[in-house]
C-alpha cells in the first residue's frame, strides 16, 4: 500500500439532518490526508443537501454530491457511488456513524499487513 493511496469515503443519505454534520466532521478530522468524499442523497425532504453544502464550506471539506429525485435505497445508492469513486480503497459510511480520527490510517495498516484482506469492518463503535 502506498502512503498516498486515495481513499473514497461514500455516504448515502436520506433525511440525515440530525446526523450528517457529525459524520462529516469525523471525516475532516482524519489523520490520513488522501481522502475524497462522495455523497448521494436519496431525495431527502429535511434540508440534508443544504446542510451538506454548508458543512462542506464551514469545514473546508470538499464533497462531491449526487442529489437524486427518488429514493434508490441504500445498496443501489452505494453501487452508484462505488462506480464514481476514484479511490484505491472505498469506505461505505452510514450517515449516522462517525469515525475515530485514526480510523482510515488503522484500516490501511490492516490492508498493508496482508494482501489477502479485501474487506474490513470495525468491531467497536466510538
Please give the number of β-strands: 4
The mean pLDDT is 94
Main pleated sheet = 4 strands, parallel
Rg value: 14 Å
* SS strand fraction: 15-25%
Order of helices and strands: EHEHEHEH
Low-confidence regions: none
Number of helices: 4
State the secondary-structure class: alpha/beta
- The residue fraction in helices comes out at 25-40%
Termini Cα gap: 26 Å
Adjacency order of strands in the biggest sheet: 3-2-1-4
Question: What general outline do the C-alpha atoms trace?
Answer: globular
What's this, in brief?
The protein is 34% helix and 19% strand.
Please describe what this structure looks like.
It is a single chain. This protein is α/β, with parallel strands linked by helices and 126 residues long. Helix content is 34%, strand content 19%. The protein has 4 helices and 4 strands; from the N terminus they run βαβαβαβα. Strands 3-2-1-4 form a 4-stranded parallel sheet, sandwiched between helices. The chain is globular. The model has no long low-confidence stretch (mean pLDDT 94).
Amino acid at each position: 500500500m502506498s502512503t498516498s493511496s486515495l481513499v473514497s469515503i461514500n455516504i448515502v443519505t436520506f433525511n440525515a439532518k440530525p446526523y450528517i454534520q457529525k459524520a462529516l466532521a469525523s471525516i475532516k478530522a482524519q489523520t490520513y490526508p488522501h481522502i475524497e468524499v462522495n455523497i448521494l442523497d436519496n431525495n431527502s425532504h429535511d434540508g440534508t443537501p443544504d446542510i451538506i453544502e454548508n458543512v462542506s464550506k464551514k469545514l473546508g471539506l470538499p464533497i462531491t454530491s449526487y442529489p437524486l429525485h427518488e429514493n434508490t435505497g441504500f445498496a443501489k445508492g452505494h453501487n452508484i457511488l462505488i462506480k464514481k469513486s476514484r479511490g484505491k480503497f472505498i469506505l461505505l459510511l452510514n450517515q449516522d456513524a462517525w469515525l475515530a480520527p485514526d480510523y482510515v490510517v488503522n484500516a490501511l495498516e490492516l490492508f498493508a499487513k496482508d494482501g489477502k484482506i479485501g474487506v474490513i469492518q470495525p468491531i467497536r463503535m466510538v
